[in-house]
Amino acid sequence: MSVVIDTALSKRITSLRSILTILIVFYHNNSIGKAIDSGINLPAYTIYFRDFMFGICSCVNALFFLISSYLLYTGDTGKRTYLKFIKSKFKSLILPYLLWTILVIVFYYLAQSVKMLQPFFTTNIVRQFTVSDWIHAFIGNYAESNNNLHAPLIGQFWFLRDLIIFNLFYLFFKKIIDKFPVSIFFILCAIYVSDPNMYIINARALALFCFGYYIVKYIRDMESIEIKLYDIIFLYLILLILNTSKILTIPLASSFIVVVGVIFFFCISYYIIKCEKLFIILKRLSTYTFYIYATHGIVEEVLIRLTMMIMPANGIIYIIQYFILNTVTILIIMTFCILLKKVCPKLCKVLNGGR
Fold first, then answer.
1. 257-301: per-residue pLDDT in tens?
2. What's the N-to-C CA distance of the chain in angstroms?
3. Which of 62, 123, 158, 326 could tie 151 with a disulfide, CB 3.0–4.6 Å?
4. What is the dihedral of CA 314, 320, 326, 332, to 10 degrees?
5. Is residue 256, in this structure, part of any structural domain at all?
6. Do 109 and 47 share a structural domain?
7. What are phi and psi of 148, to 5 degrees?
8. Among candidates 259, 286, 229, 197, which has minimal Cα distance to 10?
9. pLDDT tens-digit series, residues 1-11
10. CA dist 197 → 131, 142, 186, 245 (Å)
11. CB-based contacts of 164: which residues, under 8 Å, 6+ apart?
């Protein structure tokens, strides 16, 4: 099935990729939580702030899976062979996944060999890796579960791992949905809501990826979807406030917030591309998104540990630090990417999935 993506929708997807990558950095910044766990006494409003930000960022993975699936199925003209498709995915997904994991292992090994740096890297001691640790580093630890993600060494790479698997079976998903569209849709809804432990992949990720094909199959013109922005903003804010204050504790509340969040960010992407300067900034940032996604965890962890050593136990300062730390993380990674591109452009391209 081939669906033409017009210029406006292409711009919206580009801007969303940059926005979602920024939100991933924010989502994984748990400096406030780490401070509290270490015994630092922070005011209650800092916890509300953290939970509110987590709520905003909770739709990131959902949108990424939907966009990835949408782009895959819209580009499926039926002319390319499956072998050519696998080769392209090896270059854009599998090879970067393997290389980044190896590089991070080497980085941990070197950092843990330097006395001054050892306090910043007290987990994943490479020298003590067993055979199972090496396997877990690349594919994830299926004996332990964190929200059924079974994350590998680079925690956020659970998304890439699952995306690789979904890409390998995308034709199977397409055929079974084409044959039983209604039945499969309700099964997927049940999977998304219940989030069963599927061990090899994340259940909700599977559902979201398949929902992406439903969008391609039944919604021919994404630009024709009209949603009043102020209505969705109001609904989103109310849900986030209720969730943060623990008033909204009904089952499925978090799932509903994610759905509303997806709609919200899709809506604001329409207005973002209307602002030429903002779109240009996001477009430039999009060239660094894979690097930011792959390395922000390490950079963020080091910066969090450093700031905890010098930061006073003040709630306002920790909230300000939250934004500054995220910004500095992104700038450090962008600087690294720019330098690598100048020094070794071929390696830079390979690590970026050939982009």
1. 899 999 999 999 988 988 889 999 999 999 999 999 999 988 998
2. 25
3. 158
4. -100
5. no
6. no
7. 60, 25
8. 286
9. 555 577 888 89
10. 24, 10, 18, 29
11. 89, 93, 94, 97
- H helices, E strands: number in the chain: 17, 0
Q: How far apart are CA 272 and CA 285, in angstroms?
A: 14
Q: Which amino acid is at 111?
A: A
Q: Is residue 93 part of a domain?
A: yes
Q: Are residues 290 and 349 in the same domain?
A: yes
> Any idea which residue has 């830079």 for tokens?
348
**3-state SS assignment for residue 79:** coil
What's the confidence (pLDDT) of residue 18?
A: 94
If asked whether residues 38 and 83 sit together in one domain, one would say no
In this structure, the answer to whether residues 211 and 72 fall within a common structural domain is yes
The rounded distance, in Å, linking the Cα atoms of 233 and 261 is 9
Q: Residue 168 and residue 85: Cα distance in Å, rounded?
A: 9
Q: Which domain holds residue 174?
A: 61-225
Question: Tell me: the pLDDT tens digits for 188-227?
Answer: 999 998 888 887 889 999 999 999 999 998 887 766 666 7
Residues 129, 19, single domain; the answer is no
Same-domain status, 203 and 280: no
88: enclosing H helix or E strand: helix 82-89
Contact criterion met (CB below 8 Å) for 34 and 284: no
The one-letter amino acid at 149: L
Is a pLDDT exceeding 90 seen at residue 309?
Answer: no
pLDDT digit string, tens, across residues 11-54: 999 999 999 999 999 999 888 888 887 777 888 888 899 999 99
> Tell me, what DSSP letter sits at residue 93?
I
Domain co-membership, 91 together with 188: yes
For 104, other C-beta atoms within 10 Å of its C-beta total 21
Region class of 177: left (phi > 0), else alpha (psi between -120 and 50), else beta: alpha
